[in-house]
Amino acid sequence: LGIALLEGGFIKEAKEHLDISRALDPAAGITADWQSRAYVMTGDPDTGVRLANEGLALGRPASIISLMHNVLANGEELDDELLDLASLPMYQESWKRVARVLHDPEQWPGTIEWVNNIKSGTTADKEWAKLNTYQFLAEPQVALDLLAETVSQDATILTALWFPIMKRLRTSPEFKQFAAESGLLEMWRSRGWPDLCRPLGEDDFECD
Prior knowledge:
By secondary structure, this protein is mainly α. Helix content is 63%, strand content 4%. The chain contains 13 helices and two strands, in the order αααααααααααααββ. A hairpin with a 3-residue loop joins strand 1 (197-200) and strand 2. The longest helix is centred in the middle third of the chain and has 15 residues, at 89-103. It is globular, with a radius of gyration of 17 Å.
């Protein structure tokens, strides 16, 4: 339930559920991972980093996502120790290139060339590397179109929208169409509005 709540942007409620789940099973690395993401999203990066490291220690490699988001949001450099935690070389390269382009946008064309022409690895891994790179760097419409293609296969990718650094996507005009077509808007109107969005009259909304 906690992950499903995060998909919809109900971050604080998701955090409560994940905290309860973790208390019941402290050795669950997957719960520590999602806990860490929820804490980073709610503006408590210190706890998020601690939980991400717990997730890694419990055998959950995906916990690196919270660590990477935290570093990138702070405008910091990715050190080799952190990059070594990425499970595949192409993932390491994706994170490195994201950090470089955030510091130097002129490197974006070279990054597009790289991510669209990865030679080795499975199709799924290549798609993940492309999505990871585009969500940080591509024009909102391009990033959201790629996200929409992925959602049909893995709805958990929606959770990435609620990290602080993804504000550029949430506040873009294109996000409104994405929310409508992905089913998010229908969910919000029936269940209530998520933490970072609010209605504007009957036919519009905005997000932070």
